[in-house]
Amino acid sequence: MKFNTQLIHGGISEDPATGAVSMPIYRASTFHQKELGGNPKWEYSRTGNPTRLALEKLIAQLEGGVAGFAFASGSAAIHAAFTLFSAGDHIVVGKDVYGGTFRLINKVLKRFGLEFTTVDMGDLDAVKNAIQDNTKAIYFETPTNPLLQIADIQAISEIAKSHDLLTIVDNTFASPYNQQPLKLGADIVLHSATKYLGGHSDLVAGLAVVNSKELADQFAFLQNSIGSQLGPDDSWLLQRGIKTLAARMRVHLENTQAVVDFLTKSPEVAKVYYPGLADFPGHEIAKKQMKHYGAMISFELQPGLSAKKFVDSLQLISLAESLGGIESLIEVPAVMTHGSIPRDIRLKDGIKDELIRLSVGLEDPEDLLDDLKQALAKLE
């Protein structure tokens, strides 16, 4: 099946017991076992649930992996990936990562003895030089949050393999519609499924897909032991959201191009970050490894212009953390998603106070442009 068909018919798309074309929500916490020691398929919903399994098989198929795992949030999926490692292990991490990932690393994982080195994933020599004798993995986002920097998944995976390391890619901003990291050599792909996969700003979930049975066994053990799995109701809702991913992404992408064209011509805007721009650093890599460039845009207002005044002046576009929903969402990373990162580190990494991140939704593009125009006009 082609990808767009897999979205609808992939995984377990109907109930094997009844033929229902929508997999039912199995809310049972436990399951009747026919005999003692009989190795039943279903035992306890933390360990396995039919509704969650349907979702996990679907995302595994969409990402081209061996197995998928559904978690209670994107952060829980990221935590599970890092829990593969032990005290004293070292991980190379991309410098431009989600603020929640930064917080998890620096406020939680370091306390348990994991070691991290942060590097620019666009500098392959820096990636190689950061590898130590105790390095176990390379972890990065592409495109990154919020600067949309592009990392060469295939090149980094080759570096990792030459040192017997795992490659872990957060694919949230792209979604499998635009990019499939496992097919480029990555070992683990992660999603905040709250975003494009869910698509309607009505659930919180995380997904992980792995490329080997060994990793699948480890993730299954961690998911069951830690207990951060996704419940059946949200599993069903997420699977329903995934079925419309292709239809939604087509409109997301059309609207994004209209907004990018507008912002690049606006005198109030100093810089636009978008991989689809020919002069954007990493454009050629994005062109090679992505089917489309995505529907996330970041842009900087001219120095001295108030990001607060701009976002407070918007009437249609919602000021909100998150992204990938049917509605357009805007945020100021320095205050919101990356507020947990100290200002000196933020500025060093290019996250200025004037930086704004926009998730372009499915509204009529003329309405979106009108809203941006009137808000920019109030800055003059």
Structural class: alpha/beta
Number of helices: 14
- Strand percentage lies at 15-25%
Number of strands: 12
Helix content: 25-40%
Radius of gyration: 21 Å
Structure, explained:
This protein is of the alpha/beta class and 380 residues long. Helices cover 37% and strands 15% of the residues. It has helices at 3-9, 50-63, 74-82, 99-108, 124-130, 153-162, 175-178, 213-226, 232-243, 245-264, 283-289, 307-313, 343-348, 365-377; strands at residues 67-71, 90-94, 115-119, 135-141, 166-170, 188-192, 206-210, 269-273, 296-301, 318-319, 329-331, 355-359. The strands form 2 sheets. It has a 7-stranded mixed sheet, with helices on both faces. It has a 5-stranded mixed sheet with strand order 8-9-12-11-10, covered by helices on one side. α2 (50-63) packs parallel to α9 (232-243). The longest helix has 20 residues, at 245-264.
Topology:
Elements: H1 3-9, H2 50-63, E1 67-71, H3 74-82, E2 90-94, H4 99-108, E3 115-119, H5 124-130, E4 135-141, H6 153-162, E5 166-170, H7 175-178, E6 188-192, E7 206-210, H8 213-226, H9 232-243, H10 245-264, E8 269-273, H11 283-289, E9 296-301, H12 307-313, E10 318-319, E11 329-331, H13 343-348, E12 355-359, H14 365-377
Parallel strand pairs: 2-3, 2-4, 4-5, 5-6, 10-11
Antiparallel strand pairs: 1-7, 6-7, 8-9, 9-12, 11-12
Helix pairs in contact: 2-9
